[in-house]
Amino acid sequence: MTFGPMPIANGFVHPDKAQTDDYRFDLTPAVCTTCNLFQLMEQPDPEMMFHDEYAFFSQTSSHMAIHFEAFANDIINRWFSSRPDPFVVELGSNDGIMLKHFAAKNVRHLGVEPSANVAAAARKNGVDSLVEFFSEGVAKQIVEKHGQADALLAANVMCHISDIKSVAQGINILLKQDGLLIFEDPYLGEVLQKGSFDQIYDEHVFLFSLLSVTALFSGYNLEVVDVAPQSVHGGSMRYTLARPGVHSQSPSLKATLRLEDDLGMSDHKTYVEFSKRCKNTGRNLKQLLTNLSHEQKNVAGYGATSKSTTVLNYCGIGPDLIRYISDTTPTKQGKLTPGTHIPIRTYETFLSEYPDYAVLFAWNHEKEILAKECEYLARGGKFIRFFPTVEIIETDENS
Ligand code: TYD
């Protein structure tokens, strides 16, 4: 299947450069029939995506901050309490949202982060960062300077790395014999269950599953010993890997393999059905917004997510259907959405003139947002969600 020509998902456009926003690549996912790895057939050059103006800062959601604190504490309490002077390395450490909890407890740590601006923000949080793309060469450098790592962590990073074999080889070099690789990423099983096709965009080169992670790392002296579903990022999976035979395997592996079998992850028909479902959702969302526009309703967007770039460009939704998108990230405000040029406004804009409808592009934070926006809902404001189906939300169903 293809989602057609796409701009860079996080490539928010300065209004002065709207005329030259013409870079596109073909967003075409495929599944490997040998290793079951769901992947993009074409990827933009990483320098086009992760650069000094990279707009993604992890710190922007309070829910994510809590999630990463719990992640860090779990590792410190479960794995590090019995180790003398443990060393943790995080790949794609962003603004230090997770490593700062290790830094606060004086645990030896190092972040590897290719975007200089977010690495600078991490340093302000007391987190040591190396501004590099992680690779075999970088792994060797780290071992020479700091020794091997007790734990290698990555959150929403592994699925971004097209040269995954170099990374797996680097991990093999950097990880101690009894060390652990723990990473989490959006889970293919959730995408298939919810039909959440907006997880497919340039940065998500891969959507992993237990099947594909097992196959991928089996060539690098690592086996999966635990899987744990996570509610963040619209449904993620945390994979824990170790050297073969060093740690016992958790019962969660069997249950997840059964789920993946039930979902038909290795069956071509599953993806044909998925493709049809994406088309339907896209059509229904555009139809609803077109109807609202005919009714002269004031429609805004909530959260200028990377994911929204796929939805907006695939469905052909522009400023004629959505007047603006409100977002709390200062670096996105005042810019335009990639390809579709919907203005991004401050959160205060949303508060000052509650729209009739707000399309919930940050649907992965639905619980947090609905709780925060009880006044908007109470005053008759409505949210629009589009997964698993296109629906209007009139009350906080979670409360
Ligand atoms: P994120 O969850 O990181 O999704 P993606 O990986 O697809 O970009 O992005 C959430 C975006 O939504 C981020 O730009 C901040 C914004 N946001 C708000 O504007 N208000 C909110 O209450 C929340 C939770 C997020």
Bound molecules: thymidine-5'-diphosphate
CATH class of the largest domain: Alpha Beta
CATH homologous superfamily designation of the largest domain? Vaccinia Virus protein VP39
Question: What distance lies between the first and last C-alpha atoms, to the nearest angstrom?
Answer: 38 Å
Any low-confidence stretches, pLDDT <50, length ≥5? none
If you consult CATH, what is the topology of the largest domain? Rossmann fold
The largest pleated sheet is described as: 7 strands, mixed
How many beta-strand elements? 18
Amount of beta strand:
15-25%
Shape: globular
Radius of gyration: 21 Å
Helical segment count: 14
Kindly name the structural category: alpha/beta
Helical percent range? Answer: 25-40%
Q: Mind sketching the topology for me?
A:
Elements: E1 5-6, E2 25-26, E3 29-31, E4 38-40, H1 46-49, H2 62-80, E5 87-91, H3 99-104, E6 108-112, H4 116-124, E7 129-130, H5 136-146, E8 149-155, H6 164-174, E9 175-186, H7 188-194, E10 206-207, H8 210-218, E11 223-230, E12 236-242, H9 252-262, H10 268-294, E13 299-302, H11 306-315, E14 325-326, E15 344-345, H12 347-352, E16 357-360, H13 366-372, H14 374-378, E17 382-385, E18 391-393
Parallel strand pairs: 5-6, 5-8, 6-7, 8-9, 13-14, 13-16, 14-15, 16-17
Antiparallel strand pairs: 1-2, 3-4, 4-10, 9-12, 11-12, 17-18
The structure holds thymidine-5'-diphosphate (TYD).
Structure commentary:
- This protein starts with a strand and ends in a 6-residue tail after the last strand.
- The longest helix is centred in the C-terminal third of the chain and has 27 residues, at 268-294.
- It has 14 helices and 18 strands.
- It folds into 2 domains: 37-263, Rossmann fold (3-Layer(aba) Sandwich); 269-393, 3-Layer(aba) Sandwich (Rossmann fold).
- The strands form 4 sheets. It has a 7-stranded mixed β-sheet. It has a 6-stranded mixed β-sheet with strand order 15-14-13-16-17-18. Strands 3-4-10 form a 3-stranded antiparallel β-sheet, with no helix packed on it.
- It is 36% helix and 19% strand.
- α5 runs parallel beside α6.
- With 399 residues, the protein is of the alpha/beta class.
- The chain binds thymidine-5'-diphosphate.
- Thymidine-5'-diphosphate binds next to α11 and α13.
